[in-house]
Amino acid sequence: MLIHGNGYARVTRNGRGQIVSLWSLPAIQMTPYLDQDTTLRYLYKEPKPLGVQYDTVLNDSEVLHIRDMGNGLVGMSRIAYAASSFGIGSAQDDYTKGFFTGGGNPRSVVETDQLLTPEQREIFKTNLGSQMADTETRGGTVLLEAGFKYKQTQLSMSDMQTLAARKYQVEDIARWFGVPLMLMGMSETAKDRTDGVESAIRGWLMTDLGPLMTKIENALTVQLLTPAERRRFKVRFDITQILKHDVTTLMNIAEKGRRNGIMSINECRDMIHLPRKDGAQYDELAQQAQMVNVGANEDPANEK
């Protein structure tokens, strides 16, 4: 969905109108449009054998459409949004390829006190080029004759920034897709990759992954559930698998859920990946009894 900006699924219903299955549809083969009555429809270009293509028009109720940021009718690909950034990265790749194809050597000059004829220049360029192009001796010693002197210049600023530019390119792509750099191994030290993973995952859930999951949950609720079903059912992602290595967070959730009568003992044990206990008392809800209503212990005789 993030690459194309849209996620599609064909909704299959039984004779009573109940949903029985969802079939994923390629986003590149779907085209949403409004007909003359401003009714939303979908054109599905279904490829067939022998290169034949069939066009199928689907109604809004037959398609689950999850949109990324866009104009409301169709979502826009994040690659299209970030085309300029990705174009810069492509240009940097071309420059890096050319730099290392040439041996990865910095710029240099060859000096001589003699005035060369055009023929001598061509002979020198041919001899030097053949030595530099030899993959077996690349990076070795170059033989110069007739008083020629080789002078190596410093690495240019653009060459020195090659590694930093490629690092920024990866960071830019990760930023567009909302992926923490730590999870991509982009941290400066190995200690950051181990000590800060739990906080990075929690931040990822709050700032990037959480809003994306909410968008999908809302689309499933609105497009697949009837108003009566929405009062009975809730569509939610189970994030405990993402947080299963964050023991501190899971323990805090389980403790508060148990103390406030929201979760049973077995539900808490399931969350922190412990085996369930046998017995009905472990499936019952309980809460602390110390809390009372405000004013419950006041003497009515004093209220005059």
From TrEMBL:
InterPro entries: Phage/GTA_portal, Portal_HK97
NCBIfam families: portal_HK97
Name assigned to this protein: Phage portal protein
